[in-house]
Design a protein that fits this description.
alpha/beta; Rossmann fold; 7 helices; 6 strands; globular
Length: 231
């Protein structure tokens, strides 16, 4: 069977370790490549980026260095925006993903992005992050830890606010898998518009959980990758 590379892009503030629990559920012919943006994880000392375009350029460079043949993009929340934009930038360079798996996000054009992050002081931003969920209390309640994660987290949400949030004129030309938590706040109208953004098929799947349903469904994500490879 042909080797396939799985490139994984995390949610706002996340690093590539988010996806590590998937590794043991993937067959050996899948090259597992979670991606890391500046300002977190292994790239913590680098300045965090605050625009989608800059993030995409960084990720393109990482992917091109791997010289992938067949590959899949998997994005979570912010990662879905980046995966969508990556599709077009990579396609221009002669690299088209076999499939995209998009998790916990409304379709491009329907994103809830007007959060006014640039006008928030530290207290307001911390409350915003707390309300979003996903950030452990031990970080929110520990000032030194909070100061460590805040720059990348804030820049990620700034990037979402600044994003043009407009579908491309040319549709995606591959099949998509869209995963969402049943208790997430994404409304159906905004979710199902993913079908309007591709010429391919869209497989929608719903899981128990909220926006961060991934924490209990790593095996399901791994199984989806296996199904894609058998299509």
């Amino acid at each position: 069977m042909t080797d396939t590379t799985l490139f994984c892009i995390p949610f706002a503030g996340g690093n590539k370790t988010l996806y590590y629990p998937m590794r043991n559920n993937l067959p050996s012919h899948i090259q597992f490549k979670p991606l890391e943006l500046p300002g977190r994880g292994e790239r913590f000392v680098e300045p965090a980026l605050d625009s989608i375009d800059d993030m995409v350029d960084d990720l393109v460079n990482q992917i091109i260095k791997e010289k992938p043949g067949e590959f899949i993009l998997l994005g979570y929340s912010l990662g879905t925006i980046l995966a969508y934009e990556l599709y077009y930038k990579l396609d221009q360079l002669g690299y088209r993903p076999k499939h995209m798996i998009l998790c916990a996000s409304a379709a491009i054009g329907c994103l809830d992005r007007n959060n006014g992050i640039e006008y928030m002081d530290d207290k307001a931003f911390k409350q915003f992050v707390k309300d979003k969920g996903g950030t452990p209390d031990e970080i929110l309640n520990h000032e030194e830890l909070w100061e460590l994660v805040k720059p990348a987290l804030k820049n990620d949400f700034l990037a979402i606010d600044y994003y043009c949030n407009k579908p491309k004129e040319r549709q995606v030309e591959i099949n998509l898998s869209v995963f969402v938590g049943k208790q997430d706040s994404i409304c159906d109208n905004n979710l199902y518009k993913w079908s309007e953004l591709t010429k391919g098929d869209v497989d929608y799947r719903f899981f128990e959980g909220d926006h961060f349903f991934i924490n209990n469904h790593y095996k399901d994500l791994s199984e989806e990758v296996k199904l894609v490879l058998n299509d």
